[in-house]
Amino acid sequence: MEKHIVLLPGDGIGPEVTKAARQVLQAVADRYQHTFTFESHDIGGSAIEQHGTPLPEDTVQAAKKADAIFLGAVGGPKWDQLPGHMRPEKGLLGIRKQLGLFANLRPVQAFQQLLHASPLKKEVVQGSDLLIVRELTGGLYFGQPSERRNNGQEVVDTLAYERHEIERIVDQAFQSARVRRKHLTSVDKANVLESSRMWREIVEEKKADYPDVTVEHMLVDAAAMKLVTNPSSFDVIVTENMFGDILSDEASVLTGSLGMLPSASLNEKSVGLYEPVHGSAPDIAGQNKANPVASILSTAMMLKHSFGMEEEAEQVEAAVAGVLQEGYHTADIDLKNGVKVSGSELAAKIVDQI
Amino acid sequence: MEKHIVLLPGDGIGPEVTKAARQVLQAVADRYQHTFTFESHDIGGSAIEQHGTPLPEDTVQAAKKADAIFLGAVGGPKWDQLPGHMRPEKGLLGIRKQLGLFANLRPVQAFQQLLHASPLKKEVVQGSDLLIVRELTGGLYFGQPSERRNNGQEVVDTLAYERHEIERIVDQAFQSARVRRKHLTSVDKANVLESSRMWREIVEEKKADYPDVTVEHMLVDAAAMKLVTNPSSFDVIVTENMFGDILSDEASVLTGSLGMLPSASLNEKSVGLYEPVHGSAPDIAGQNKANPVASILSTAMMLKHSFGMEEEAEQVEAAVAGVLQEGYHTADIDLKNGVKVSGSELAAKIVDQI
Ligand SMILES: CC(C)[C@H](C(=O)O)[C@@H](O)C(=O)O
Ligand SMILES: CC(C)[C@H](C(=O)O)[C@@H](O)C(=O)O
Prior knowledge:
- The structure is a homodimer.
- Chain A is α/β, with parallel strands linked by helices.
- Chain A folds into two domains: 1-106 and 260-354, CATH 3.40.718.10; 129-253, CATH 3.40.718.10.
- Helices cover 40% and strands 24% of the residues of chain A.
- The first copy, chain A, is built from twelve helices and 14 strands.
- In chain A, the strands form three sheets. Chain A has a ten-stranded mixed beta sheet, with helices on both faces.
- The longest helix of chain A is centred in the first third of the chain and has 19 residues, at 14-32.
- Chain A is globular, with a radius of gyration of 20 Å.
- The mean pLDDT of chain A is 96.
- Bound molecules: 3-isopropylmalic acid (2 copies).
- One 3-isopropylmalic acid (IPM) sits between chains B (89, 92-93, 245) and A (191-192, 221).
C-alpha cells in the first residue's frame, strides 16, 4: 500500500523521537513492501520561531492531505510567557480542531519489566491494561464564550456539547471495548453537571447497539480514586475532554513507564494524529537521551488505526517487547541487569527486529 | 465559651459518625468548661423521605444561626434515580451556597501506622502532609447557564467566576500556607482556559501580600500526575471547584486512610461546615462498623477554625493518635498486632483520652 505521512517534529525532544518513528515506519514499509512517503512541517514553538504562529496554514493544508500525521511534542519554557493565542499548545489544539480529531485513544499498560519503577505497589498495579478514550474537540476546552466580562471583573469558560459529538465518541469507545475485554466505564459528574446527565443518557441509549459490552457509570472523583487504588479493574474509560485530560495523565504515571506510552487522535475518516504521551522535555533535548519507545508504539497505533495494518502493528509491538526483554533501555528507565543505551541506539535495535 | 452546633446526620453511616462527633465535642466541653449546645436537622436522602426535599428550609435557617455545623454524609443508591433537583447531593450543594461556604479545606496526612494500606510504595507516600484548598461555591459546579438547548440537541455548563471569589479563596490558601510549610501550589489549566489565566494573574497579584510564602503554578494534568508520583512534594494546593473535587479525591486515597480524613468548609465569617471525607457507605450502615476517626478529626477542625480553640483541637488530635498508637481500629483498617473494635468502642476510647 501507498501511504503519505506528515511529520510534525515540534519542540524539545520532538525532533529526536520523530526521527525514530520515521525509521520504524520505513522499516515496516521495507519489510512489508509498502510505500510510505514523508513530509515534515512546523508546529508549536519552532513554528512560532520560523513563521510567527504556532500553526502555519501550510502545516494545516499538508495535514489535511495526509493519510496520517505523526507529532513529536510541543512547548517549552521559552514560549511560556507569550499571550494565549501565541502559545505552542495552540498549535496542537488548532490542528485537533481543524482535522476534527475528536477521539483521543490513550492505552496504559503495565510492562512487567518496569513495574519496579511504578509509584504503586506491585500487587496494586500488576495486570493493569486500560484504554482512555477522551473526547478531544469539544467540552470545556473549546466551548464559547471563553472570555473576561464586566471590565475584567468576571470570567467565563463554557463546557458545551452537541448531541452528535457525544454520540460519536461514545460509539468509538464501545467499538474499542468490543475488541478488548468488553467493559466500558463512562466517567462523568452527573450528580452536578447537565452535560454529564446528557452524556449518561446517550451512553444508556447506545448500550443497546453493543449488547456484548458491559457498561458502568462512574463519577469523575470516584474514577480519580479508583485509578490509584485499583487500576487493573478498568478496561475502556470514555469521558469528556477535560476529565479525560486529567484522568489520562493520572493514569500515565501508574505503571512507571511514561516514556513508553503512545496515543492516537482520530477523526471520522480515521485519519489520525499519533504522538507520544510524554512532553517536549526541554531539559534533555538534543542529548540523544530521549526514550523513543512511546513514539514507536504510536506508529504501531498509526499502522493499526489509520492504515488497517494489524500484522505490521503487532510486529512493531513485538520488536519493542523483544528489545526490552533483552534489557536495553534509555536513561529515563532503570532495568535490573539492563544495558543503558542512547535514544538512537535503542531505536536502531528496534528497527533491527522488524 | 458558649457555642451552638447544628448536627446534620444525613444518610447511611452519617448518623453513627455524627454521634461519635457529638460525644467528642461534649467531652471537650466538659474538660475545658465550655458549653456546647446541639440541635439536629435533616439533610439529603433522609430529608427527602421526611420532607420531600433534600434541603428543608428549617435546616437552612438553623444552620444560618449556628456557630458551626457538623455533617455526617449524604446519598445512597435509594435516591440515585431521582431527578437532579431531588438528589441528596443537592442538599449539600445547597447548604454550601446558602451559607457561602466558599473554602473547602481537605488535609491529607500519612499516618505511619497505616502506610501499609496505601496503594503507593512506602518510600513514595511517606512524609506526605498536604492541604487542598478547593473553591466550593463557584466555578463549573454553579455557573449559569447549565441547560439543554435546541430541543435537546445541545447542552452547556458554565465555569464562571467573579474576581472577588477568586481573590478570597487565594487569600485563604495563602493564610493556610503561612501556618504550615509556607509553600503554595496553585493549580489551573492556564494554557487552555481563560478562567485559569485570570486565576493565575490573581495569584501573582496576591503574592506580594505574603512574601513569606513561595508560590508555584501547576497545570491540573501535571498535578494529577505529581500527586501520585511525589505526594510529599506538596504543602498547600489551591484550585477551582471541579479541579479540587477531582484532585482532593485522588489525594484522599494516597495514604491508605480514607476513613481518617476530615474536611472543613468555611465562609467569610469562619462559620464552617465540618464533615468526614468518606461517603455514606450504605453497605455498612447501621452495623456499628463505620470508622468515626474522620468525623472526630473534623470536630478538631471545627474547634480550631470556627471556635479558635487551638489547644482543644490538639487535644482531640492527640487522643486519636494515642488510640491508634495503642492499636485500636475499626474493620476498614488493618493494623499489625491491632485490636479490631466497633465504631462506638473506638469513639469511646478516644473520648476517654480527652
Ligand atoms: C497541551 C495541552 C493543550 C494538551 C491538552 O490538555 O489537551 C495536553 O495536555 C494533552 O493532554 O494533550
Ligand atoms: C456530592 C458532590 C456534589 C460533592 C462535590 O462534588 O462537591 C462531593 O463529591 C464532594 O466532593 O464533596
